[in-house]
Amino acid sequence: MTSEPEKITRRKLSDEVLDRLRKMIIAGELRPGDTMPSERALMARFGVGRPAVREALQTLHNSGLITISHGERSRVNEIDAETVFTQSDDIIRLVLAMEPANVDHLREARRMFELGMVRLAAERRTEDDLFDLEDTIVRQRAYLSQDMQHFIAADMAFHSKIAQIAGNPIIHAVSRAMVGWLFAFHQGMLHWSGNEEVTLAEHQRILDRLRARDAEGAVAEMATHLDRSSEAFSLHREGEGGKA
């Protein structure tokens, strides 16, 4: 039996330059805030022409690793978890829009994530944290008769604050990203659902469990909140499908 030949493909010079520059950033040779070497210096260092250097730099810029400014040298960006998710935002929204089942998968992932998040928050919250959450609920209630967009923003802020209380910046970044992606698809439902008072009551019960440092109770209340929201979204989507 004859096997298929394994073809060796020659990589573009710009890809080779890109790999070298990434390694320089990862190794700390180029640190956040540093200016990148000039195009001429990179051409000399890697033995390549200007087009390969420019293409590699543009790819780094598009990925958020550096910033290219006209009239100035490129600069290495400060990269954190939130920056990574921001860079992926458009792609994730496209993936969710193209395949509705992915919204369900994301809701399931969010449920698992937020139950662990609220457990940590119950253990780590401070009195100032409780005050901030209470203030968010008060603002959310005030928006009931004013502006649904602000009501939704306060809803997102409540969950974001719990993620912040958990004390882990990666948890905070992941939570903010997932909530933002889901709310982009939930907004139509939230405008007609009539469940705003239910949402406020659920938020208050979650806060009460956090105040009591009752981790199990907080997890149970968050599960009730997310499951009810998920069911409402599913019913709304089925209704919209029936109208089509």
TrEMBL record:
Listed InterPro entries: GntR_C, TF_FadR/GntR_C, Tscrpt_reg_HTH_GntR, WH-like_DNA-bd_sf, WH_DNA-bd_sf
HTH gntR-type domain mapped to chain residues: 11-79
Top-level division of the source organism's lineage: Bacteria
Pfam families per record: FCD (PF07729), GntR (PF00392)
Gene Ontology terms, MF aspect: DNA binding; DNA-binding transcription factor activity
Keyword Membrane annotated: no
Keywords: DNA-binding, Transcription, Transcription regulation
NCBIfam families recorded: PRK03837.1
PANTHER family associated with the record: TRANSCRIPTIONAL REGULATOR, GNTR FAMILY, UXU OPERON TRANSCRIPTIONAL REGULATOR
Protein's recorded name: Transcriptional regulator NanR
Organism: Ponticoccus litoralis
Gene: nanR
